[in-house]
User: Fold this.
Amino acid sequence: MLDKLWIPAIAKSGFASDDLDEVREYMDVHNGAHWRHARHPGAVGFLLWYRDGDGIRVAGCRMQAPQAIRGSVDTLTVHLTLSGRSDYRIGRRDIVTEPGDLVVLPAGRELTIEAHGLRRLVLQVPAIARERDGSSSVSHRSLPPAALASLHRALVALARVDGLPPEEQGVPRAHAESRLAGWMLGQLPGPAEARRVPRLAPERVRRIEAWIEAHLQEPLSLARLCEQAGVGARCLQVAFEAHRQLSPMAFVAERRLVAAHAALARGEYGSVTAVASAFGFEHPGRFAAGYRRLFGLSPSQMRRKSYPQV
Assistant:
């Protein structure tokens, strides 16, 4: 059944390349800024097909060469692994997907994905994302055969629309897209599964996150974050766990690693140790371990990639 869900015939647009730099450039433009690293030199075997409808996107992505990807999704997104394997790192949570596994990713959630010979189906429905703003959580489960068969029927219905004369496609397309959106809605965590909405509103969490970004090179403690947010430690902890699946201080460490990554790419500070120190990492070994976990290579490897003469 999983092979039947790979239906590039329904695509309206697509992209294919064996060159990692071309893939980075294309995905930066179409999916937003991200980091991508191939585990081995040579052809990456990347293929993307997608179809944008009235309020729905369905896409298929293939990555033959093992890759590490760091980025985020801009709207509520469903990933369904069709073949190969993906290792997700989202906050403190590690998820390993096998064929038939589905992962729900809330909008704005940053993550690292290690893809191994992957084929994946991607679904996005912005209207559902707006309804679930601030209330969806990351979820992972293996889909039963009945759910996969239902998805296949919805995709086939969408493909059949293209065989109709253009003047007859309107209503059938709307029905097919509605059917696909309904399937996606049925896969999202229900009220009993989802985390409680924290007392700290999502807008206030985003404001404190922006403040953290602006002060990464300053001493930051939980007490200082609570003072800035105007709430107690427990409230701040619950809010960050709900929205980021990270504690406040773990979020600080992650953002410092991202800033250090950018500094290494620009060749700033002269050495890896100096970069670590500039962003508050007192132990170079811990900095290197955290960096590798986030970006799939060591800080020194990144520095050599950006500035081979160093």
